[in-house]
Write a structure and sequence with these properties.
By secondary structure, the protein is mainly alpha-helical. It is built from 4 helices and 2 strands. The radius of gyration is 16 Å and the shape is globular.
Length: 107
Amino acid sequence: MKQEHDENLRTHLLKTLGAAACAEDPEVAIRARKLLVRLAPPNPKPVFAKLLKHTVSKGESLHMIADIYDTPLARILLANPDLKVSDVLRPSIVLNIPYRCSAGPNG
């Protein structure tokens, strides 16, 4: 029970720090990022403050989707561990898109 509570607390803290890492105040963002590095487990599962869902349309590629959301391709791959850059995306596949600090699909 205590271990589960500790893990829930850790997950909440990592998500909160993830959001703080996007703060407008550069000093707050830098401190939050440093704490995230210290708290991360040896083989961390990526923790994103917010994930958007994107349903793939015909003709879309990972690069196009990364451009739409102004999010680095590497972050999309981290949020979708079963994907590879070389994968052909089929329409109707739903991808997790890490929310970019400064932008979303509409800015």
